[in-house]
């Protein structure tokens, strides 16, 4: 049994891998990770950009598609094939977990982050193209994304809500899930088949808060490197509060399952901090931690399997208060990080399409 197995079996947290490539799906790399204890897969435009431009594994399919269709259609066809293959690898995990784990996530186009109707249509289309029970479509938790999330849950579709950076936005995400379940129940839907995670981005919070603290100067000693874990622990408190009580109990009685908090962006960006700061500090039941390859390797090697997600909740609340006293506006931090996150994924998507366009032009010219 590996530390990843213990993480799930002892503490109730599901480790997912934040990477998806065709060579890994077809060559057994993903299956090896599953054997080591990985229970789900996430992807994003940046991951696909690296996979598709850094490997020749896509060349034959790409050449065939662009001979008769657009570059962007070629991307989606290739991404759908990768996700479908990964869903096949993870399907035994889905089946043996009773539908709790074994999910593979695919994101709608980042160009739709401010387009509610477009996001809704795109998410529905992906679910129809990949008609598998262990697909999760990722929708960003922008203001425009929240209504699309509610609509998709109301149709009984699995959604990975991504790019959450603040506690108020997380509460809006929970509300979208609960009201979506109520809509689905009213239509006679089977609530037990609806699954969702709420992806709270972690390390980027410390990066932005620390930058502001450095700029502020003065007496900020002891404040660096603690905002992200503090906010995530308070997010878990919100999760416990909202997934209990009469409203939730009524949904649970009809078969509803909780929307689990997912800790994303968990690789440590500051080399001065422990490499597993955002894993070891946020372990607890009914949570997911999606890690890049290096973080998975580090946890397998020296991770600590111990419940920590609800340690020091009052200290976490106090820390955010001290940050406010130091002039750190967490609402503005979240706004900046959301804008940067959306822009980063959009840039990766644009770069990917440009690289694929260059490759298509080279194929047409015979070079």
TrEMBL record:
Stored InterPro entries: Aldolase_TIM, TAL/FSA, Transaldolase_2, Transaldolase_AS
Catalysed transformations (reactions): D-sedoheptulose 7-phosphate + D-glyceraldehyde 3-phosphate = D-erythrose 4-phosphate + beta-D-fructose 6-phosphate
Short name of any one Pfam family annotated for the protein: TAL_FSA
EC nos: 2.2.1.2
UniProt-recorded Gene Ontology molecular function terms: transaldolase activity
Residues annotated as signal peptide: none
Source organism, top-level taxon: Bacteria
Enzyme class: transferase
The keyword 4Fe-4S is annotated on this UniProt entry: no
PROSITE patterns, A to Z: TRANSALDOLASE_1, TRANSALDOLASE_2
Transferase as UniProt keyword: yes
Pathway of action: Carbohydrate degradation; pentose phosphate pathway; D-glyceraldehyde 3-phosphate and beta-D-fructose 6-phosphate from D-ribose 5-phosphate and D-xylulose 5-phosphate (non-oxidative stage): step 2/3
Subcellular location: Cytoplasm
Active site per the UniProt annotation: 138 (schiff-base intermediate with substrate)
UniProt entry keywords in alphabetical sequence: Cytoplasm, Pentose shunt, Schiff base, Transferase
Task of the protein: Transaldolase is important for the balance of metabolites in the pentose-phosphate pathway.
Similarity section: Belongs to the transaldolase family. Type 2 subfamily.
HAMAP family per the UniProt record, alphabetical: Transaldolase_2
Protein name: Transaldolase
Originating species: Acidiferrimicrobium australe
Source lineage: Bacteria, Bacillati, Actinomycetota, Acidimicrobiia, Acidimicrobiales
Name of the coding gene: tal
């Amino acid at each position: 049994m590996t530390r990843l197995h213990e993480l799930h079996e002892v503490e109730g947290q599901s480790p997912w891998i934040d990477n998806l490539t065709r060579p890994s799906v077809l060559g057994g790399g993903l299956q090896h990770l599953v054997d080591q204890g990985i229970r789900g897969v996430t992807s994003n435009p940046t991951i696909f950009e690296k996979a598709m431009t850094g490997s020749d594994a896509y060349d034959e399919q790409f050449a065939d598609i662009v001979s008769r269709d657009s570059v962007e259609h070629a991307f989606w066809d290739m991404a759908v094939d990768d996700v479908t293959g990964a869903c096949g690898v993870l399907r035994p995990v889905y089946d043996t977990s009773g539908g709790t784990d074994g999910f593979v996530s695919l994101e709608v186009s980042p160009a739709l982050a401010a387009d509610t109707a477009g996001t809704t249509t795109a998410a529905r289309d992906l679910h129809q193209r990949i008609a598998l029970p262990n697909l999760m479509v990722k929708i960003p938790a922008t203001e425009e994304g929240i209504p699309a999330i509610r609509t998709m849950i109301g149709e009984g579709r699995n959604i990975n809500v991504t790019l959450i950076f603040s506690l108020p936005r997380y509460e809006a995400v929970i509300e979208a899930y609960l009201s979506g379940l109520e809509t689905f129940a009213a239509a006679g839907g089977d609530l037990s088949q609806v699954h969702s995670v709420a992806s709270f981005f972690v390390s980027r919070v410390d990066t932005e808060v620390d930058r502001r603290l450095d700029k502020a100067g003065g007496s900020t000693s002891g404040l660096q490197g603690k905002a992200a874990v503090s906010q995530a622990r308070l997010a878990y408190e919100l999760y416990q509060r909202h997934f209990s009580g009469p409203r939730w109990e009524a949904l649970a009685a009809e078969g509803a399952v909780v929307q689990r908090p997912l800790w994303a962006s968990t690789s440590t960006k500051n080399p001065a901090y422990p490499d597993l700061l955002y894993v070891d500090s946020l372990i607890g039941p009914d949570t997911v931690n999606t890690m890049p390859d290096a973080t998975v390797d580090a946890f397998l090697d020296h991770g600590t399997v111990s419940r920590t997600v609800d340690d020091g909740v009052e200290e976490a609340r106090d820390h955010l208060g001290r940050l406010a006293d130091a002039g750190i506006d967490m609402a503005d931090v979240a706004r900046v990080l959301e804008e940067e996150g959306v822009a980063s994924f959009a840039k990766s998507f644009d770069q990917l399409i440009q690289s694929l366009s260059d490759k298509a032009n080279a194929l047409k010219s015979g070079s």
